[in-house]
## 1
Amino acid sequence: PPPLIHFFQANVAVADPGDTLELSWATSNATRVTLYRLMPSGQLGNFWDVELSGAFIYTTAATDRNHVDFALFASDASGAWVQATVTVQLTCPDSWFFTPAPNECPWAAPLASAGAEQSFERGFMVWVQAQDQIYVLFEDGLSPGWKIVQDNWDEGDPVDDPTLLPPAGFYQPVRGFGLVWREEVGVRDRLGWATAAEAGFNTLYQSTARFKYNEFYLLALDGRVWHLFPEMSRWEKVGQ
């Protein structure tokens, strides 16, 4: 007879990130049983050779989100095998910094940071000090719709390029914004000149907690929220 898994279960259906779970199972006609923790992608991750029937204690990570998944494989000497899976849903420990909030758990609590924002003829730049990154938001309908650039400007570096003179009523971006605008390929052509001086403020950042295709949210200077869609495809500004 082929190997059988009579049951494979967890002691709870829902747990908090960081909780300890007990997984239990029973098999027959098997010569080997292997327990796998599945990766968020669904691929096989860490594994343990376990008893043919028994229990296993597993402690989730405080950083785990959404759910944790396990697979049990039972095989016999001929190579025949059977599989069962179990999923434990995870509670969400954090809240979004804005409303209406996405109907899913954020990756982490809001990241509070000093920031800056500047408007351009065809887009915007947003600086998040805590990430040392600059978000470039294009408004010209081309791809990518937005991108992230490392902020490589340091105190003592040139503030601007005195040979670049903006038309009347426009501005040359300075410091980190200016460095990205001048040196990052395509940014200057796509954004155009700045339409206002940069303004500093306190921002917040959060993202979704998916395996891929995550979405990102930044508190804007005017109190609304920059919503950046997956794969740098597009963005929108939401809120009142």
## 2
Amino acid sequence: MHHADVTTVNRRGFLAVVGAAVTTGPGLRADRADQVWHAGVARIDITPAQSIWMAGFALRKQPAQGTAMPLYAKALALQAGRGPAAVLVTVDLLGLTAAITDRVATIVRRRHGIPRARLLFNA
């Protein structure tokens, strides 16, 4: 489902900006502050507390019985110099709904001032 009021992430543009920033040599910029990279990472366990039906195995006849490995949501935030931050969010799931990504994007904008166009969700 696509909402008209939500900015769509331009994945090619996002990757081009990150790639260009990584390959830009230090001699190409006059201001040392522009050469400083900031990065942050975070991880949270999103493993359900109760047994749920799992996707990915069509012959399943009952909800999951225990946890073999925990499921995580992880984020990598990158900022080149004084430029805007970009955040890659990845989850150990088969997919994310627009409702979930919209809610996360709203919280991230409110708390950190990062617009939806600078968030890339990956499942």
## 3
Amino acid sequence: QRAAPWRAATAAALAMALGLALFAVRLPLLQERDAAPRLVLLAPQAALAGGQNARFVASLSADGTALVLRPLQALDLGGQRTLELWALPVHGAPRSLGLLALQGTTTVRRPALLRDAQAIAVSVEPAGGSPTGAPTGPVVSLGRLAG
């Protein structure tokens, strides 16, 4: 009977420790979910055929795992060319994020490709995308993600 209070105190301490651990794990997740996405404007760097400027607005999720990109005007490349989106890391080569929709939105949900990116760029590529895995055409739009 003397051990009963100690058992109760131990059970209460264990329950409080588990509750605190659960709170500590969930708090960063709640903060990330409530954080607002960052908006990035990609400014024209060079004109497209016909004098078009490639202006885009991008929304980057607060946790950096999703990117939604939309052209500010419909773009026409004549079917022979396409636009490709690139992540520009602090160190290393550009990483392709995929081909862009010339009208409407493009969504990228590949967090590994966005990791450590300081900027994103859009280049003109042959139909189907870059044949080399690196930008081959002119960079027509650029936007900074950092700072």
